[in-house]
Design goal:
Layout lengths: L9 E2 L10 E6 L12 E16 L7 H13 L2 E8 L10 H16 L6 E5 L10 H12 L6 H7 L8 E9 L2 E10 L12 E6 L5 H13 L5 E2 L9 E6 L13 H23 L7 E9 L2 H13 L1 H8 L5 H9 L11 E6 L2 E7 L2 E2 L4 H8 L3 E7 L5 E8 L3 H8 L4
Parallel strand pairs: 4-5, 8-10, 9-16, 11-15
Antiparallel strand pairs: 1-6, 2-3, 3-4, 3-10, 6-7, 7-8, 11-16, 12-13, 12-15, 13-14
Helix pairs in contact: 1-2, 2-3, 5-6, 7-9
Length: 414
């Protein structure tokens, strides 16, 4: 999948270690019986970081989220490290917070920092007790192996049903200084967010205050991760965390202005590309779907329509079957929580194979089924909706719904 970049921002390698001062590692500690797959990861900064995070709004929250929230509150939005495991979500467990805090203590002991300076996260099966012994037995080796070159090991440690690692990083200028911002993400199923999705860890060597970091993250998540849907299920452990250590040497971004906008653009590009990667790797997916709603009276309307269409199981199934069924798209747009005139809607479908108009003024029109099938046979499909009622536009991302999604989730625990 080709990355989306803009002038002044260059894609670089390194993921969470692209930024100066960060190192990472991953290993198999035994939570995952497949010894070839990492299940424990760590990210560390040589300097204290301004830190911000957003979390799932599911009422059922993983214990690691509750502990991370307490830690960032205790430190005033500062951290030094991340400890994360896969295979077990440590959610809906009576001893969950105790185990999550113990993970912070174990990491802190090896890194010689305070346990409150550790961000902790878990992903995997919900409702199974997390054994702490495997983590305790491997934490020393994990910390000893920290390196800027081990970003891929950490990225693989957070994978569950993911089929590929998700890493993106960009280079840009702030205050005349070369800065980098990069991250890693995991997520394949149970994705329909509100304020965050999956597990996402972002690092930057730019100097940014904790309040401005939080502002940038909250605003950027709205138009990226919050417009992502694989299956309509919101996870209990969703988290997006960003750490800024200031190693680039720029003047701290502490207020709105040109520097903040440049930083936020870098964050947007990384989150945008990670969002697209997450959508493309949805459980069982064969196609990346991007829905654009243009011509809306306001941004909220555009976003609501785009998300409604991208969430629809019937639209997803039609895209899998290469069926240009505009009725399903109009139906999903029609039950969006937004007000607009359905008699003005145009709908087109596009891909690398071309584009085709399938609806005009809210009504289906004649088109070539052969051309439509060719357009929808590509692995990246664009659903383009024009409400013709304003200037606002928004995008949402998802994937098709295939037979394999049911197979994967029918035997998830086994």
């Amino acid at each position: 999948m080709k990355l989306k970049m803009e002038t002044g921002y260059k894609n670089v390698e390194g993921g969470v270690c692209a930024a100066a001062g960060f190192s990472a590692n991953g290993c198999n500690c035994g939570l995952n019986p497949d010894k070839e797959k990492n299940d424990l990861g760590m990210v560390y900064s040589e300097k204290t970081c301004s830190t911000a995070a957003v979390y799932t709004t599911n009422k059922v929250k993983g214990a690691p989220i509750l502990v991370t929230q307490k830690n960032l509150e205790a430190t005033g939005g500062q951290s030094r490290a991340i400890i994360v495991n896969s295979k077990n979500a440590n959610t809906c467990n009576a001893d969950g917070e105790q185990k999550a805090w113990r993970m912070c203590e174990l990491a802190a002991q090896q890194l010689h920092i305070a346990p409150e300076e550790v961000v902790v996260a878990s992903t995997g099966v919900i409702g199974q007790v997390l054994p702490i012994e495997p983590i305790a037995n491997h934490i020393k080796t994990l910390a000893a192996g920290l390196s800027p070159d081990k970003h891929g090991e950490a990225a693989s440690a957070i994978m569950t049903t993911d089929t590929v690692k998700k890493e993106v990083a960009v280079e840009f200028l702030l205050d005349g200084k070369v800065c980098r911002l990069g991250g890693m993400a995991k997520g394949s199923g149970m994705i329909h967010p509100n304020m965050a999705t999956t597990l996402n860890f972002i690092t930057t060597d730019a100097a940014v205050s904790a309040p401005m970091l939080h502002k940038a993250l909250q605003e950027t998540v709205k138009g990226t991760y919050n417009c992502l849907c694989v299956d309509g299920d919101m996870s209990t452990n969703d988290m997006v965390c960003i750490m800024a250590n200031g190693c680039a040497g720029n003047q701290e971004v502490a207020a709105d202005g040109e520097a903040f906008q440049a930083f936020q653009k870098a964050l947007y590009l990384v989150l945008l590309n990670l969002t697209r990667m997450l959508a493309a790797d949805g459980e069982g997916a064969s196609k990346l779907l991007e829905c654009t709603c243009a011509g809306a009276p306001d941004l909220d309307t555009a976003t609501a329509v785009a998300k409604s269409v991208i969430r629809s199981p019937l639209v997803k199934a039609a895209m899998f079957g290469c069926d240009a069924n505009c009725g399903r798209i109009l139906c999903a747009a029609g039950y969006a929580d937004a007000e607009f005139d359905v008699h003005k809607i145009d709908v087109a479908l596009a891909s690398a194979a071309g584009s085709i108009l399938v609806c005009r003024d809210g009504n289906g029109i004649a088109f070539s089924e052969e051309k439509a099938a060719a357009v929808l046979a590509e692995d990246e499909i664009s659903i383009r909706i024009d409400l013709n009622q304003g200037e606002a536009s928004a995008k949402a991302w998802g994937c098709d719904l295939t037979y394999d999604y049911v197979k994967i989730n029918a035997d998830y625990r086994s």
